[in-house]
TrEMBL record:
Residue spans crossing the bilayer: 12-32, 44-66, 87-111, 147-168, 180-203, 223-247, 268-289, 317-346, 358-382, 388-409, 429-448
Keywords, alphabetical: Membrane, Transmembrane, Transmembrane helix, Transport
Membrane-topology descriptor: Multi-pass membrane protein
Compartments where found: Membrane
Domain of life: Bacteria
Protein name: Sodium-dependent transporter
Lineage of producing organism: Bacteria, Bacillati, Actinomycetota, Actinomycetes, Kitasatosporales
Amino acid sequence: MSAQPREQWSTRAGFLFAAIGSAVGLGNIWRFPAVAYEAGGGAFLLPYLIALLTAGIPLLILEYTIGRRYRASAPGSFRRMWRPAEALGWWQVAICFVIAAYYAVILAWAVRYVGFSVNLSWGDDPDGYFYNDFLQVGDEPGAITSFVPGVAWTLLAVWLLTLVVLWLGVRRGIEWCNRIFIPLLVVFFLILVVRALTLDGAFDGLDAFFSPDWNALTDSSVWIAAYGQIFFSLSVGFGVMITYASYLKRRADLSGSALAVSFSNCSFELLAGIGVFAVLGFMAAQAGVPVDEVVSEGIGLAFVAFPQIVSQMPAGAFFGVLFFVSLVAAGLTSLISIVQVIVSAVQEHTGISRTRAVLIIGGALTVTSTGLFATDGGLYLLDAADHFINSYGVTLAALAVLIVVSWYLRKLPQQQAEADSSSSVRLGVWWRLCLGVITPVVLGWMMVDSLTGEFS
Ligand code: PFF
């Protein structure tokens, strides 16, 4: 373990900005609207809220109490709790490594699309432009033959920026970066949503988003999608919030902060859903087709559907730039948090300096993400990595943490006391009920169900 004094956030607001920055990311803007729509539109909101209240917020509070109490990275915190539990932290570090490697690539696409928006480079075929011209997806699925130069160079720039921020440290790097990008993101996004709502056909889009499909509630995959989205979106289960909370002052308000972060994240997410669907309604009106015919999957939504809209709307280039800059700001602050989980764990475990840790981890990540995902055909790998990590990797991590912490070690009362000692909101028995019973049972069932679905 390193002997250097632990870094700290300068103020509570600094921590909140960073935690919100981690939570609000590409997941809110391109993942949520597509997942929600696919899982039954309005009916998705109910499982989503249940997942938020019974799993998302309680787990977020648990991660905060673990980080602040044990004051270390994810593996270090679990180790201090119970030696063998260190493995849980390393599992989370491994997940973060894979996510960082592909998340950075999507971010690099978004950076390129800021430029493409200026002169509407995609012409009248955004679909072909994205897959063939830009990503050069080969004819053979899975074929990985060479770098896509435009992506690879941008990716290197994304990595350089991320690593510089991490190298500057918690206060001068992470906190500052979030203090700049989060307010910018909020302003840009509000402009975009207001504009979207004033487009022709916007309300047909909202209708598609909010019209409930109650049958979907009996479908277990809808519930799985809701839990998966809540974990990904709140950055819960990845060790991020343990790491960030380890830089808190002793007296920091934990439960109040968790509520503030969840509320901000979910409002942003719903707003993104509203904005995206309003715009899809506009597209449908232009094409004279029903809204569900213009909806495409997550990745396509941002890089295929949006360019199309940008081409069609008045002053599209301006709004295109605003949209992709928002995507970059949201994604960058999340990427930083994911990599910090790895850097802090390695730094503590080996005792090396921050500079060295950033160089080693950054180098390994840059090579992995450029070599695997910034190639023609890397898209297939990216899709598979996203699916498996988020369906199984994170669920398994969250489940294992709950089994160890609440069932085996019976630490919930102690962690509750840790939170209540300094929080504006006191945790009641519901918190222990959620983490001790409801969530582990639901997660266990989800794992079995989706695994059997995968192989049937
Ligand atoms: N919460 C981020 C998003 O919604 O895009 C993604 C994310 C960040 C996932 C940090 C995992 C993580 F550790």
